[in-house]
Design goal:
With 308 residues, the protein is an alpha/beta fold. It folds into 2 domains: 125 residues, Periplasmic binding protein-like II (D-Maltodextrin-Binding Protein, domain 2); 136 residues, 3-Layer(aba) Sandwich (D-Maltodextrin-Binding Protein, domain 2). 39% of the residues lie in helices and 18% in strands. The protein is built from 11 helices and 13 strands. Strands 2-1-3-12-4-13 form a 6-stranded mixed sheet. The longest helix has 16 residues. The N terminus is likely disordered.
């Protein structure tokens, strides 16, 4: 039987701790999601409120994202405020209500936001020469499991409920098997972070997890303490990389100013240096159609549920 809840999460986070030391302290996971709402837009303040949800580097790289927001601030000539929110659903709600102007989000939340309230693409990172990433299904290195089907009755870690690589992809894989997470796994938890999912597998807190390939590969190359204790069981097809998005109601001139700053950052020595630390080659324009494969998975799952 699948069980999710705060008791499981408390045990998990007590076991995991922090993934490593970054340039700034990693934000702590807060089980109580109730937080003060961000201030409503004020016409007398020229402010761009920016949330960082979908990252292509581990949480330890958050300092570099903050550096990049300061870089954007310098380029556009108005204050850019970092808004700390952990869940994709909350970030989308804030984008919809006008409490955020822009955000780094995952592919799944972009697709949801685009259909629900007209969320717009601004640009997408190109990393390691491509604008795609994968979902890795990982298990402990010594696990005897040989295929995804062999995970029946095991403990499994998702990241965020709206994550593409950390939730939608493995759910779609199960749907193709006429299964759901509840029917297939013995226990499911949400870690809220690919870093923590990797560590949960490495420490044996869970038997398997679905994680972002870019983050697993980054950690495997830079600090493999935990990735070395895991094994990639399956690799998904490629999906369009998590983008930067903006509110539909953002002023067109500001939207274009932000877009050009992103697209030209790699041509500026200071911008290039920050991007290199973020493991981003450059930002590029990306069409909405690049995310159609995510929509197709969502549609397939919805049709299967409707047919039952």
């Amino acid at each position: 039987m699948c069980r999710t809840g705060c008791v499981v999460l408390l045990v998990l986070f007590a076991s995991l701790g922090n993934m490593g030391c970054g340039r700034e302290e990693t934000p702590k996971i807060v089980l109580d999601s109730a937080r003060p709402a961000a201030e409503a837009p004020r016409p007398d303040v020229k402010l761009v409120r920016f949330a960082v949800g979908g990252m292509i580097t581990p949480k330890e790289g958050m300092g570099y994202y903050r550096d990049f927001l300061r870089y954007i601030q310098e380029k556009i000539g108005r204050k850019v405020e970092y808004v700390d929110r952990e869940g994709y659903a909350e970030i989308n709600e804030m984008l919809q209500s006008g409490q955020l102007e822009a955000a780094f989000v995952c592919s799944g939340p972009y697709v949801d936001g685009h259909s629900q309230f007209g969320l717009e693409l601004l640009a997408a990172p190109q990393a390691y020469g491509a604008t795609v990433y994968y979902s890795y299904i990982i298990v402990p290195r010594e696990s005897a499991v040989a295929s995804f089907a062999g995970l029946r009755g095991k403990r499994f870690a998702f990241t965020d409920p709206l994550s593409n690589s950390g939730k939608l992809v493995p759910t779609y894989m199960l749907a193709r098997m006429n299964e759901t997470p509840e029917s297939f796994f013995e226990e499911v938890i949400f870690t809220k972070s690919h870093d923590k999912s990797i560590k949960a597998v490495a420490l044996g807190v869970v038997d398997a997890a679905a994680v972002d390939s870019l983050i697993w590969e980054y950690l495997n190359a830079t600090s493999p303490e935990f990735t070395a204790k895991t094994r990639i069981l399956e690799k998904s097809p490629p999906y369009a990389i998590p983008p930067i998005v903006v509110s539909r109601d953002l002023a067109p001139e500001l939207k274009e100013q932000l877009r050009q700053t992103l697209l030209e950052a790699h041509t500026d020595p200071k911008g290039q240096a920050i991007l290199r630390q973020m493991r981003i080659d450059r930002f590029v324009a990306i069409p909405d159609s690049a995310y159609d494969s995510v929509r197709e998975m969502q549609t397939w799952i919805a049709r299967q549920k409707a047919g039952k």
